[in-house]
Amino acid sequence: MTDAERDELIEKSLLNELDAASEARVQQLRQEDEAFRQEFDFQEMLTTQVRLKRRKELLDMFDGFESEQAAANEGTQIPIMALGNAGQHDVSSDAPPVIPLWRQSWFRVAAGIVLTVLLGAVVWWKLSRYDPKPIATGIEDSIKSPLPTAGSPQNDPAESPRLPVPHPIDPVAQSGKAARLKGPSRLPYYETDDIRLGFGKGRKDREYRTVIFETGPTAAYEFQDTLRVFMPVLPAAKPAWSLVYNRSTDTYYLISGQIRYEVIRGLQGREPLRREPASTLPK
Amino acid sequence: MNQGNSLPELSDKQLLDGLRADDQGAWRQVYNTNRRKVIHYLRGRGASAEVAHEIYQDTMVFLDAQKHKLVLTSKLSTYLTGVAIKKLQAYWTEKTKEASRISIGFDSPVNRPNLTGDDIDEMELALLNLALEDDPRFALNPEEADLMVQKALAQIPLKHCADIFRMRYWDGFNDQEIADRLNLSHGSVRNQVGDCKKKVKSILLTMGWGQ
Predict the structure, then answer these.
(1) ipTM of the predicted structure?
(2) What CA–CA distance (Å, rounded) separates B124 from B190?
(3) B169 touches A: beta carbon within 8 Å
C-alpha cells in the first residue's frame, strides 16, 4: 500500500465512507501496524481540529449576532400586545414571544364556534318562518293584527254582527289517500282584510295555530278555542293548509290552494264546512 | 466570510444560497429570524433557557454542515425546528441514561430482560438520533482539542489548504466535488490534500509533536 493509498483509506474511514470490510481492515491495521496507527491518529486529530475550528468560527459569529441583538434592544422595549397585561417585554429574553390575541389558536377556534352558532341560528330562524307555497297573491292592502282571543269583543259571538248562513257543503274530494293529517297540525296563520284573501308580496304568516283534523261522517268543524276539522276522508299533507283570519268580515278560512272553507269562531257545536264560491277566489 | 449587514426579506432559497456563499448577512437573518421561534419551541418542551440556547446554536452549526447538500422540502424554519427537536430528544435521552445508569446491551435481546417499556422507547429514540449523536462534528469538546494542531493549522501558509480541509472534513465534499469547485482535476486535488497534510505535519514536528 502506497502512502497515498493509506492516506485515502484513513481519510475515508474518518469520514464514514468505507464499507464494513474496508473499515474492519482499517481497524486491524491500527492494531497491527504502528506507522499506520500514528498516521491514523494524526489524521483523526487533523480532522477533528478542522471541524472544531469551523465550529468555533460559527459560534463566534452567532455570539456576535446575540450581542448585536442585545445592543439593538437595549433601551428599546416593545409594549406587550396581549390583553390584560400592563408592562413591557424584553425581546432579547428567552421568554415566549407575545402573540396577539387574534392570532392565538384558541381565540380563532372560539370565534369560529361563535360564528357557526350565530350563522346556524340565523338559518334556523329563516327556515322556521319560510313559507314554501304562498297561498295567494294580491294587492298590498292587508293589515296584520294579533289573533283575536275567545274573549275579545270582535270574536264574541253575541256581539258579532255576522251570523252563520247555511251553505251547501261541497263534497270533500274522495282521494282515498291515507288520513295523514289526522290529529293536531300546526298550520301557518295569516291575518288580512283583503276581500279576496290575497296577500301582499312578501307578506308572511305571523305564527302558527294548532288545528285538529279528525275523521267524521260529514265535512264539518268545531271552533271554540281550538279549530277541529272533521272530514269523511282526511286530506293528505299536500297541498298544505293555512288558517286565515279576514278582519273585514271577522271570518276565518281554512285554505289549501284553490280550496277555501269558511269557519266561524265561537259557534256552539259542530258546523258544516262551507266552501267559498269560486267567484271569490283570487285570479 | 462575506460581510453583510442588512438584507431585505429574502426567500428561504435565497437565504440558503447566501449561507452556501458564507454571506454573513444571510446568516444574521437566518439566525435572528428563527431564534425566538425555535427557542420558544424548545422551552415549551422543558428545556431551560441555557440548554435551549445551546441547542439552537448547535442547530445552526448543523445547518452549516448540511447546507451544501440540503434540499428544502419545507420552510427553513420548519426544518430548523425539526433539527432542534431531534437534538433536544437526544439531549433528554442522554440525560435519562446518565440518571438511570441503565446498562443496555444492543447486541442481543437476551441482554434486555430487565428493560421497561420506557427503557425500550429511550433506546429506540437514541437509535433514531444516532446520526446526530455519533457525528463527531456535533459532539466535540473544544476543551479537549489539541492546541498544537490548531496552531499548526493557523500557520498553514496556503489558504487553499484550509479551504480544502474544510470542504473535505466539514462540508463533506468528495475529491471530485472539491475539484469541480476549485476548477482542478481530481488528481490535483488528491495531491494537494496530501501536500497540505505534509505541511501541517512538518509544522507539528517543528513544534515537537509526537516526541
Answers:
(1) 0.72
(2) 40
(3) yes
**pLDDT tens-place string over residues A262-276:** 888 887 888 888 777
**Which of the residues A65, A90, A98 would you substitute to probe the B interface, choosing the one with the greatest number of B C-beta atoms within 10 Å?**
A65
B153 touches chain A (CB under 8 A): yes
Q: A75-113: string of b/e by CB count within 10 Å (b at 16+)?
A: eeeeeeeeeeeeeebeebebeeeeeeeeeeeeeeeeeee
Interface size between A and B, measured as CB pairs under 8 A? 94
Any idea which residue has 278582519 for its cell?
A247
Distance CA A167, CA A275 (A): 8
Distance CA B57, CA B39 (A): 10
The DSSP output letter for A75 is T
- For residue A98, which of A107, A87, A89, A86 has the smallest C-alpha distance? A89
Percent share of chain A, pLDDT over 70:
61
B146 touches A: beta carbon within 8 Å: yes
Three cell numbers, residue A22: 474496508
Identity of the residue in A3, A55, A94 whose CB atom sits nearest the CB atom of B39:
A94
In 3D space, the residue among B88, B141, B1, B28 whose CA is nearest the CA of residue A68 turns out to be: B28
Nearest CA in chain A to B32: A65
Question: Best mutation site among B55, B62, B169, B189 for testing chain A: the one with the most A CBs within 10 Å?
Answer: B169
The residue with greater pLDDT, A107 or A92, is A107
* Phi, psi for residue A252 in degrees, rounded to 5: -100, 150
Q: Note the pLDDT tens digit of each residue in B75-110.
A: 888 889 889 988 888 888 888 777 665 444 444 444
- CA atoms B172, B178, B182, B183: torsion sign: negative
